[in-house]
Amino acid sequence: MNRLIGKLLGNRYEILEQLGGGGMAIIYKGRDTLLNRLVSIKVLRPEFTCDEDFIQRFRREAQAIASLSHPNIVSIYDVGWEDNVHYLVIEYIEGDNLKNFIRAQGTIPTERAVEIARQISDALQHAHENNIVHRDIKPQNILITREGRAKLTDFGIAKEATTATLTQTDTIVGSVHYISPEQARGETAGPRSDIYSLGIVLYEMVTGALPFQGETPIGVALKHIREAPPRPSSLNPAVSPTLEHIIARAMAKNAVERYETARQLSLDLDKVAKPVFQKAVKADTDDEFATRVLPTVTRGNLPSQPAAVPAPVQNNPGRRRTAWLWAALVALGLLAAGVAAFQFYINVPEIQMPAVEGKTQEEAKSE
Questions:
Q1: Cβ contact 198:211 at 8 Å
Q2: pLDDT tens digits for 257-295?
Q3: CB atoms within 10 A of CB 215
Q4: Is 122 part of the annotated catalytic residue set?
Q5: Quick one: 49 exposed, middle or buried, by C-beta within 10 A (0-12, 13-18, 19+)?
Q6: Among the four 49, 173, 252, 317, which has the fewest Cβ within 10 Å?
Q7: Helices 110-129 & 262-284, crossing angle to 10 degrees?
Q8: Active-site residue, from 32, 78, 122, 136
Q9: Distance in angstroms (rounded) separating the CA atoms of residues 194 and 206
């Protein structure tokens, strides 16, 4: 397929270099010469282009996926066929897939794993609301951008590859580790099948291990149907009981016992993430009035009304000097008024009395 490097598909998409490949397709880095932007070009392997019914279904589903618009889903720009080459033109992502992150780190910190799973849950909810089931959720199909955003890719191809998943190359066999019990039994995959697969991805992120291993793909498929996986906390003590319960519910053998929708899973994951965020906020600030979660105020939890306390005088030197000046002026005014009153009522001036000795009372009053 390297013969395609340098080729111009659809008189528009120039193939620059090979990025990777799997059992179903090879991914190339390309350039949209019309819009002058980088793109990824997924080219189906020749062995999957022989069945015309498969090709028609692939085209229809690719066109349906192109209608999806979500920040956690890789966008599909175009679909085409030229010289027996069937290809999809998709959004180019600067980053790596989740599988390589797990291989490099061993385990993903639980807070980060929960956030990745929540973003993919939101992507699945959007797809399911548009009647599209992914059917091949696995870390290889989850891309992590340089900014840390998780993006789901490879929609639709697994729908027609379920049978081949158990019989073809090692790359395709890898998908058997993430298939739901109903897929392993050959039944139709639905939205809850995607939820099961995402539960396995979350399990692998927090433990660094797959829940089921086997010598053959059939052996692994049987374990999906019959066996319970080791508890995540037994492999990683950092996994909380709440998160362990979420993983167990997502991976329930019976589809009815799983989350009914990806939104329900996302909401539960959000509850796990919130305490971590709140704890970090409390550690980063001593502000008594910082934004926080507060209980609803009701009559039952209102405190008794305390006695009014005079507001303390603000520690402002300018205002304090002004207050003392006014106080002194008032005191001086009161003192002056007191002295004046004393002088007026107590210190009565002397007067000259007439001589009335020997006169009658009426004559004295008259004087």
A1: no
A2: 999 999 999 999 999 886 544 443 333 434 433 334 434
A3: 7
A4: no
A5: middle
A6: 317
A7: 150
A8: 136
A9: 19
